[in-house]
Amino acid sequence: MNVLEIRDLSVDYLSGSGTVHAVAGVSLDLRRGEVLGLAGESGSGKSTLANAVARLLRPPAAITSGSVVYRRQDGSSVDVLALGKSRLRAFRWKELAVVFQSAMNALNPVSTVGAQIDDVLRVHVPGMSRSDRAERAVELLRRVGISADRRRSYPHELSGGMRQRAAIAIALALNPEIIIMDEPTTALDVVVQRDILHEIRELRQEYGFAVVFITHDLSLLMEISDRIAIMYAGRVVETGSAKAIHRSPRHPYTLGLLRSFPRLHGPREELLGIPGSPPDLRALPPGCAFHPRCGMAVAECSSVLPELEGDVACLLNGGRGLEDAS
Ligand SMILES: Nc1ncnc2c1ncn2[C@@H]1O[C@H](COP(=O)(O)OP(=O)(O)OP(=O)(O)O)[C@@H](O)[C@H]1O
């Protein structure tokens, strides 16, 4: 069952030098309780898509088409793009929470982490007593691996990993159904990063929230995601289970991305990467935007824009795997 349904969503950035089509006709489902990883080179539109869903876009960004529907367990649904200011504030904490790249920016530097959790609870759960709030803050911090006495610490007194954990605890405060994590751990060392993400997977099993996870680290993404959506030039070009994408990528771009990253397990392979660079989003090449960089392109690829059919948007590979990459 889906918790979020994105349909034909497009986002432009309006600038003096031309309109940047950052997200172009994206349709994507988030299933209840899953971890969905968004992958793609820098500039492919991952953050713009996530920010559109969380209603965090600011001018010059403009949503030019599409819909985002949030589905509650009781069968009711919310038209996310139509939410007014006050309903949006409630939606963002109670139903969807965001953990940003830099926990330092998300945390208030002049307030202790305990007080910040308390603030969220006080504003959004008016009937909750002071002692219940304190208890809940300690419990949330404990869940993310922070001891109770640390609730009196200010963000600058915590390590990067601890700050990230505190940001996650705050995001969990109201038991949201969806957590969006945009590069939540890149500033941390690899071991801390993996630890935190594995804990998020465990927390998810307990609390049942779904996660949209964005990172440049493809091997980490494979490790913690149930499903993956690959973006190129503002479009989703392939979706599938992490396993299927890892074993048999179907889009040539996915194959290139996988070859660009060292494998976590198994024999070392040459890192082939992808030739060339991503296109200018103000003036996309006709047809498939990837065709100028694609070693498998045929003449048709430069004139026909492939639809996302059978989980892959490629004229050549509608139904079959390109090769077994396992
Ligand atoms: N404020 C802005 N004004 C104009 N263009 C923007 C703005 N913000 C982002 N863009 C452009 O939109 C496109 C998509 O950016 P976005 O940050 O969504 O990509 P991304 O895949 O998340 O990249 P990264 O992995 O580097 O975060 C890029 O071409 C970027 O230059």
TrEMBL record:
Protein's organism: Nonomuraea angiospora
Protein's cellular compartments: Cell membrane
KW Nucleotide-binding (keyword) present: yes
GO molecular function, one term: ATP binding
Major place of residence: membrane
Gene3D superfamilies: P-loop containing nucleotide triphosphate hydrolases (3.40.50.300)
Family to which the UniProt record says this protein belongs: Belongs to the ABC transporter superfamily.
Every ABC transporter domain range: 6-258
SUPFAM superfamilies linked: P-loop containing nucleoside triphosphate hydrolases (SSF52540)
A Pfam family recorded for this sequence: ABC_tran
InterPro entries in the cross-refs: AAA+_ATPase (IPR003593), ABC_Ni/Peptide_Import (IPR050388), ABC_transporter-like_ATP-bd (IPR003439), ABC_transporter-like_CS (IPR017871), Oligopep_ABC_C (IPR013563), P-loop_NTPase (IPR027417)
Topology within the bilayer: Peripheral membrane protein
Signal peptide: none
Keyword Endoplasmic reticulum set for record: no
Protein name per UniProt: Peptide/nickel transport system ATP-binding protein
